[in-house]
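I would like you to sit down with the pair of lines that follows and say whether tokens and residues agree.
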Amino acid sequence: MNYPAPIPDDLWAWALAHLPDARTSLDVSWARGDSRVWRIETDTAISAFVKISPTARDYDRETTAYAYALRALAPHQAPRLIASDPQMLALLTTPQPGKIVRGLSLGDDEELRIHEAAGRLLRRWHDHSAPATADERSAIQAAVTSQAEEAGVCLQATRHRLSPDEKQLVEDVAHELPRLAPELPLVYRHGDYATRNWVWDPEHGHELGVIDFAMAAPGNAVEEFVWLHSALWAPRPSLRDAFFDGYGRSLTAAERRALTLLSARLGVSYLRAGLTKQDPVLIERGHLVLHRMTADNS
């Protein structure tokens, strides 16, 4: 369990240099060990956020992504970077108006609007992607191959807990994913496009924003949809349809197959981690995703 931590003195001094009217800070880190984020309040009641990136790689990715968001998205769709410091791995950003979508009590119509808006925003993000370089293509192919190999390892550890159809699907992940990869469209991905990073602001025209760019990098467009497909869309295809209405194109046949396989890999990874840690929540999540993807595969 994480407990609120005071902002380090050097970080506070750095933030004050950019926000002279800052008065208080509050630890708002996610409940995980490497999350270090504080909300800063000023005399004018304007908030800002200061974050220490877990690694230099995260810092580089996120600063690059903030510059990308400035070009790709409208001002109301993403926070802006006020300042950054590579020595402290610190980022100071504007707030994103609205509320995090995950956990909101939403009616069906509003949820459909949110998914359509999320698809529209992501398409705008993807459309500003530069063509992938040869090195990026090679790295993306290697990452897909690594996921396929991981599925094979997970299969050996979980085989005794899988149905015959689930075993076959995970075997398909290991064998098919590397062959599919060259057919998948490449983009500059947000990398963690989930409801925990969507911010809904219905008071200002039902606008949707997105936060948290630490995972942004070139990759397969379809990988943006894996969590959404396995957690939300499989049992509620109307949300998927609304999202792709906003996105403005359907998935290709190769992307549809890859989405099932990548989601199955996620499920068997949950299951393996749950069995290793004796975590019933992860075990249940893994079984649920695999059950959904087996149905998706039929």
About this structure: The chain has a mean pLDDT of 94. Strands lie at 22-27, 37-42, 47-52, 81-85, 90-93, 99-100, 186-189, 198-201, 207-210, 217-220. Residues 134-158 form the longest helix (25 residues). The radius of gyration is 20 Å.
